[in-house]
TrEMBL record:
Its cofactor is [4Fe-4S] cluster. Residues 148-380 form the Radical SAM core domain. Residues 383-445 form the TRAM domain. Keywords: 4Fe-4S, Cytoplasm, Iron, Iron-sulfur, Metal-binding, S-adenosyl-L-methionine, Transferase, tRNA processing. This is tRNA-2-methylthio-N(6)-dimethylallyladenosine synthase. Its EC number is 2.8.4.3. Its main location: cytoplasm. InterPro entries: Elp3/MiaA/NifB-like_rSAM, Methylthiotransferase, Methylthiotransferase_CS, Methylthiotransferase_N, Methylthiotransferase_N_sf, MiaB_methiolase, rSAM, rSAM_horseshoe. It is found in: Cytoplasm. Catalyzes the methylthiolation of N6-(dimethylallyl)adenosine (i(6)A), leading to the formation of 2-methylthio-N6-(dimethylallyl)adenosine (ms(2)i(6)A) at position 37 in tRNAs that read codons beginning with uridine. The lineage of its organism: Bacteria, Pseudomonadati, Pseudomonadota, Alphaproteobacteria, Hyphomicrobiales. It is an enzyme of class 2 (transferase). Monomer.
Length: 452
């Protein structure tokens, strides 16, 4: 049997796409391996969001090339495929920069992989056209055993692309315009996942809350409506979605955060900056106060919600005052979790053309200050759950024998001792300690006295 090794960079969309590529290749007789050296086919599923991410691909390709040469010396053939957003953005340039690459395939074309691999026997190829047909129509359903091996929490792509054109972002160019998948297909996929034991679905899309597509009743369904329907799928206990834009939080979705128990109290809602001037230059189309008001509305319905965001520091023209506005917004909101980055100019995006770029040292200093505050907030949030009893979805064996590990509703990893529970169960666990990355809890056996 031939073996394929897939390495994914970047966001959850790529994790999902990597699984779909493995599914396509399974029908061609490839089994997945975690060891690159034994792979007949190496796929790098790349990310183009920041410069560093793209450069990493080229250095990794250098290592893959060496491995290909070593295998060749022992008479073994290795194909190298570059997929994902760098493939989409750079196309032929990748073949030029790295002669060992056989195939370059964009995120909309990976259903063509079997054909591309066959053609690559004769020539090196690039496939980055935006096809008219939907790739999802051409992707095979994964085998039940495959779904089971991937765990009880699964990603489900419901939307791709972005029409927002934030001035710093390459996504609208690499992933194209917003397209929502049909409701019926999403339901089919959800049911198949649930049937194989999946308990938690994370709906994903580049701008997932822009979801809109005609439902079985003929009306256009928003994300809120879709979530309500998915909550009815037998076996599905938890729903999440990522990543979203503040402007697309409509009433139905906000209400779902209050009235839909399966929708977990966790929201990743990137704000990027707290300065109105910078938000405007970023083309975010909302102010810092509008974001505060939106969060206040959501918290009114779901007071416990854990909030998460992305931040960019050092956007062109960002002054000390602009940065202080971001720090103030962070202090006002209180985030449970966050991702923060130095602004990285992306060729072809409007912000890269702005003359007033912020010096690297200033970006670094601001990032350190912001991350310090965000980390303090994350720790405070985690410590705040000590003493609470939280429902934990069991995902895998814990780090030590006898331990089992899962996630809290707030997406915190939780470990506790148990020899009685199975993966996929949801267990009420009392949190006793917060480590730097995980919570530690104890299962209260029915009848046990709980220490005060
Ligand atoms: N520079 C830095 N960070 C960026 N992001 C997107 N584009 C850039 C860029 N050019 C960040 C944003 C986005 C996250 C996925 O990546 O914060 O929300
Ligand atoms: Fe990029 Fe997100 Fe803005 Fe779309 S909404 S352009 S994906 S940052």
């Amino acid at each position: 049997m031939k073996k394929v090794f897939v390495k994914s960079y970047g966001c959850q969309m790529n994790v999902y796409d990597a699984e779909r590529m493995a599914d396509v290749l399974a029908t061609e007789g490839y089994s997945e391996t975690k060891a690159m050296e034994e792979a007949d086919l190496v796929i790098l599923n790349t990310c183009h969001i920041r410069e560093k991410a793209a450069e990493k691909v080229y250095s990794e390709l250098g290592r893959v090339r060496e491995m290909k040469q070593e295998r060749e010396a022992s008479g073994l053939e290795t194909k190298i495929v570059v997929a994902g957003c760098v493939a989409q953005a750079e196309g032929k340039e990748i073949l030029r920069r790295q002669p060992a690459v056989d195939v370059v395939v964009g995120p909309q074309n990976y259903h063509n992989l079997p054909a591309l691999l066959r053609k690559s026997q004769a020539e090196r190829i690039v496939d980055t056209e935006f096809p008219v047909e939907d790739k999802f129509d051409h992707l095979p359903a994964p085998a039940k055993a495959k779904i089971q091996s991937r765990g009880v929490s699964a990603f489900l792509t419901i939307q791709e692309g972005c029409d927002k054109f934030c001035t710093f972002c390459v996504v609208p160019y690499t992933r194209g315009a917003e397209v929502s998948r049909p409701v019926s297909r999403i339901l089919d996929e959800a049911m198949r996942l649930a049937d194989a034991g999946v308990r938690e679905l994370t709906l994903i899309g580049q701008n997932v809350n822009a979801y809109h597509r005609e439902g079985p009743d003929g009306s256009v369904w928003s994300l809120g409506r879709l979530l309500r329907r998915l909550a009815e799928v037998p076996g599905i206990a938890r729903l999440r979605y990522t990543t979203s834009h503040p402007r697309d939080m409509d009433d139905e979705l906000i209400e779902a955060h209050g009235g839909l128990p399966a929708l977990m109290p966790y929201l990743h809602l990137p704000v990027q900056s707290g300065s109105d001037r910078i938000l405007d230059a970023m083309n975010r189309k909302h102010t810092g106060d509008e974001y505060r008001q939106l969060i206040a509305r959501i918290r009114k319905l779901q007071p416990d919600i854990a909030l998460s965001s992305d931040f960019i520091v050092g956007f062109p023209g960002e002054t000390d005052q602009d940065f202080e506005d971001t720090m103030r917004l962070v202090a006002d909101i209180g985030f449970a979790m966050s991702y923060s980055f130095k602004y990285s100019p992306r060729p072809g995006t409007p912000a890269a053309e702005i003359a007033d770029q912020v010096p690297e040292a200033v970006k670094a200093e601001r990032l350190a200050r912001l991350q310090n505050l965000l980390e303090t907030q994350r720790q405070a949030f985690n410590h705040g759950t000590v003493g609470q009893t939280l429902d934990v979805l069991l995902e895998k064996p814990g780090r030590h024998p006898g331990q089992i590990a899962g996630k809290s509703p707030y997406l915190q990893p939780v470990q506790f001792e148990s020899d009685q529970h199975r993966i996929g169960e949801i267990v009420a666990v009392r949190i006793v300690r917060a480590g730097s990355n995980s919570l530690f809890g104890e299962w209260i056996k029915p009848g046990d006295k709980v220490a005060a």
